[in-house]
């Protein structure tokens, strides 16, 4: 699933093209899980990016490392396992497949990928569609809690989740540069602390020009209080 993207990025690198913008939609976790020699080439290809839009693939059950599965199945067969036992070992429910993919995306490999594009001015992350799984992709593990892009102007987060405290950290890491912030379909795992978000960022985003929030974010207690503290923002409700 990563091969077409590899070919495009490596062709650009070989041609001496300096990519400024990249959209990956939908993209498999396998792109970020390749051998280091391949990843090193991809890192070089994206080193000049200024904009990146990533929509993560939700076809979990077809998103497996089949070469690894085949190798493991052969090993089991050689060790005397029956075909029924082998099939059972690799049978995967939708939820199990989703958790496997989420685990791969949240282990730091996406963050490492993005860190190799230090000049990013715009980052847009769209999590996989949720079906029968009570979990959202943790954005704090994709962007890091201490990492910052020194020129980031535009941050868009859709269908992802995290603790409010972590969202605060991600936003305030870019307090000096952030001009546009969009949060939609955001779910937190610490709802009892959600009122802390607005007061925590109120008045601390001096360059903010636009803020886009969906229904769920607008229902957060304390939003009205926070909005009154952002009088310099001309377009708070950009729906």
Write a structural description.
With 239 residues, this protein is an alpha/beta fold. The protein has helices spanning 3-14, 36-45, 66-78, 83-89, 94-105, 109-115, 139-143, 164-172, 197-201, 215-218, 223-228, and strands at 21-27, 51-56, 122-126, 137-138, 154-158, 160-162, 180-184, 187-188, 210-213. The longest helix is centred in the first third of the chain and has 13 residues, at 66-78. The chain is globular, with a radius of gyration of 20 Å. The model is unreliable at 218-222 and 229-239 (pLDDT under 50).
What would you say about this model in short?
The protein has helices at 3-14, 36-45, 66-78, 83-89, 94-105, 109-115, 139-143, 164-172, 197-201, 215-218, 223-228, and strands spanning 21-27, 51-56, 122-126, 137-138, 154-158, 160-162, 180-184, 187-188, 210-213. It is an alpha/beta fold and 239 residues long. The protein has one domain (3-60, 94-228): Leucine-rich repeat, LRR (right-handed beta-alpha superhelix).
SS element count, helices: 11
Query: What class would the helix/strand composition place it in?
Result: alpha/beta
Arrangement of strands in the largest sheet: 1-2-3-5-7-9
Summarize the biggest pleated sheet: 6 strands, parallel
CATH class: Alpha Beta
Global mean pLDDT: 78
In total, the number of strands is 9
CATH topology: Leucine-rich repeat, LRR (right-handed beta-alpha superhelix)
Strand content: 15-25%
Low-confidence stretches: 218-222, 229-239
Distance between the termini: 35 Å
Element pattern in H and E: HEHEHHHHEEHEEHEEHEHH
